[in-house]
Design a protein that fits this description.
Layout lengths: L8 H4 L11 H13 L6 E3 L9 E6 L2 E24 L2 E18 L5 E7 H14 L5
Antiparallel strand pairs: 1-2, 2-3, 3-4, 4-5
Pfam families: Pep_deformylase (PF01327)
Family: Belongs to the polypeptide deformylase family.
GO molecular function, one term: peptide deformylase activity
């Protein structure tokens, strides 16, 4: 189901709790909502649709990648400044991002994965994990 995008900074600034199998329905809502915003959105966290669980979805080259309970294990490469926008607010803000990140997460079946991401994909994941941690850009 396509959900409204939350713009309430109080809700968005709350750290999200770990997701469980009982929260699997959130994955479909996130996928439906990000697809509805495909022209302007490449990543979405569950709290953006009002669910304070650690679930994110990003557009990963040709498909949507679901990450449940993502954690950045390691950062490497240079740190750079960039401008980012978000559906939760208007305009863009400057942020610092790591060029390369190693992330542990569960897939939609709650199978643990570890993968390294670089470039724009790493940037999107960092943005969405910030959402999970209650960090607003």
């Amino acid at each position: 189901m396509i959900k409204d995008i939350v713009k309430d900074t109080f809700i968005l600034s709350q750290p999200c709790s770990e997701a469980t199998v009982k929260d699997s329905y959130v994955i479909e809502d996130l996928l439906d909502t990000i697809k509805a915003h495909a022209q302007t959105c490449v990543g979405m966290a569950a709290n953006m649709i009002g669910v304070t669980k650690r679930i994110i979805v990003i557009f990963d080259e040709r498909e949507y990648l679901i990450m449940v309970n993502p954690v950045i294990l390691k950062t490497s490469g240079k740190v750079y400044k960039t401008m980012e926008g978000c559906l939760c607010h208007t305009g863009e803000k400057e942020v610092k991002r790591h060029e390369k990140i190693k992330v542990q997460y569960c897939d939609k079946n709650f199978k643990i994965k570890i993968k390294t991401f670089t470039g724009f994909q790493a940037q999107i994941i960092q943005h969405e994990i910030d959402h999970c941690n209650g960090i607003l850009i």
